[in-house]
Amino acid sequence: MREPLVRINGLTIDFDTGQSNVRALHGFDLQIEKGEAVGIVGESGSGKSITWLGALGLLGPRARVAGSVRLDGREILGLGEREMAAIRGKRVAMIFQDPTSSLNPVHRIGRQLVESLVLHRGMSARSASAEARRLLERVQIAAAAQRLSEYPHELSGGMNQRVMIAMALAGEPDLLIADEPTTALDVTIQAQILEVLKEMRRETGMGLVIISHDLGIVAELADRVVVMYAGRPVETAPVSRIFDAPRHPYTRGLLAALPEIDGALERLVAIPGQVPEPHKLPPGCPFAPRCAQANANVCDETVPTMRAIAQDHAAACALIHTAKPEALRSLELA
Amino acid sequence: MLAYIATRVGRAIFTISLVLTFSFTILAATGDPALLIMSVDAPPEAIEAFRERYGLDASVWQQYIGYLGNLLQGNFGQSLRDGRDAWDVVVERIPLTLALTVPAFLLKIGIGIPAGIYAALHRNSFLDRLVMMISVAGYTVPSFVLGLILILVFAVNLGVLPSGGQDTWRHAILPIVTLGTAGAAIIARYTRSAMLEVLGQPYIRTARAKGVPWPKAVRRHALPNAAIPTLTVVGLMVGSLIAGAVVVESVFSWPGVGRLLISAVANRDLMIVQAILLLVAVCMVTSNLLVDIAYGLIDPRLRGRSGSRKT
To answer: What is the pLDDT of residues B268-289, one digit of tens each?
Structure first.
């Protein structure tokens, strides 16, 4: 069997808070094929960002990351700093939510791009500088040559995110992880950034992980969606199936909270309550306290695990698998 | 950048004129130097003659105007003690003071900055806590106490170093260590907190995410940013190179500017006191000015927009 680009198995992340140990990620499994685009969706605190920061060893000394993360079949969890540094930016690049504070305020844009090119493409300073200009032009920044000598505070947020994307492209990565890349930007700029990401994927064929709390943005870019809740994946399916036949009550809740442009004017339904804090998780299904369908006998007993429902579609809800056919139907109608 | 420098130079001149006026007023308000310098039972004619000679018989306003006028011509007045030019009396002490404060300054930076960086990079480690404990002790113990302790240990008990005077380089060791300790402690704390602040910034995460190895990320991305707040406290120390050793010079009987100031105040030698205060003010203001300019050089955000616009 061919190895996928990324294979994550049983990834857990714990934070040592001094007095106690808090588990923020409870076993995460995912495979990403070469060139595939996967969306990770969930509310804040669901563990969608730390999964990737943890996998790339970017969480700092208080985090304990365990499990397995394989890149082209090679285990990268537990690699030394030097070996990890060679993977970061080169094989797997990452862009973040707030582009302006993600760029170094005291270095010129050009210098920050050149740094990546010298690191990963072994370029001389001179050819790197010409390549930096080409990268800015690829992400559709006007007056690229001039921008190279400017500082991040002289550019708008949208431009800085383009710079971040250009910098990520510098290493010609196989996978780009975009962590809420448009959350801090205006709506019109959001659309432009998503367009740039799509364009770059078409050009380079790189894989993409798009992390967002917004199912709409994920639907724009991803082939497949993983819905996360309280540090666990709860449902995964191709994008079209997530929209057409969501099975987990939480996914349904997220969809109900999404306005439809061409649909009838309906009231948006918010999911009551909040994501439980990592140290106050309920004993059974973490979503049960907020779930309209929760059944005290089943849901409060054990934590449901991901189980296949159909081809490429799995969910972690006890009700889907234990309910009698009638109950299942009512669940689908709900 | 030029406008940035010009406003700061203007501010510096204003500050110095404030200091001049303030020191003149305070000294004029605190008594008649003629009575103090001449003995109390001196004949009234002698006292009058003294006042006339040093211009002390004019009104305070006239004295002030005259003082400013003389200053503008580079005339700092004469010592009321021996009639020598006040500026000459002060200037000949400067090298002696610098012989203590410059090595002490290098000591502060040489120990404080690396200790602060180390502590921040190894936050909550045993060495971090040790560095911070020493640093708290270093800057809470007043320098005259530390000076006396050092004299007790190294001069009195061990007898390896002299307790005062300035005959050889060995006389300078204890005063330099005394001066350097508190400063190193302060710089270490500032550097540590500046580094911790910067290390938590998103652009450090970006640097690591783009594959910059950790040591290089620290050198290239964290240090220049952490230098900005650290510069403030280092700049203050540059400003106090001339006047920062008043207490330590007294403890170790070191005949520098600081001790001159103390004896001039005690003797009501007005012109000397004013010359020293002016010198101190100019040093402080100049170093602040240099710090401001250095800020502008390090931090492009402070330079103002240079012909670019947001889109």
So the answer is: 888 898 899 889 888 888 888 8
* Of A110, A331, A140, A173, the residue nearest B209 (C-alpha): A173
3-state SS of chain B: helix, strand, coil percent to 5? 75, 0, 25
Say whether residue A81 is in contact with chain B using an 8 A CB cutoff. Answer: yes
Query: Could you please report the per-residue DSSP string of B172-201?
Result: HHHHHHHHHHHHHHHHHHHHHHHHHHHHTS
The two three-digit tokens of residue A162, written as one number: 């383009």
pLDDT in tens, A151-193: 999 999 999 999 999 999 999 999 999 999 998 888 889 999 9
Radius of gyration of chain B (CA): 24
Cα A10 to Cα A65, A113, B267: the distances in Å are 10, 35, 81
The dihedral region occupied by A29, where left means phi > 0, alpha psi between -120 and 50, and beta the remainder, is beta
Predicted ipTM of the assembly? 0.88
| Identity of the residue numbered B70 | N
Collapsing DSSP to helix, strand or coil, A277 comes out as: coil
Chain A residues with beta carbon closer than 8 angstroms to that of B210: 88-89, 93-94, 115-116, 119, 167-168, 170-171
* Chain B contact present for A58, CB below 8 A: yes
For chain B, what's the residue count?
Answer: 311
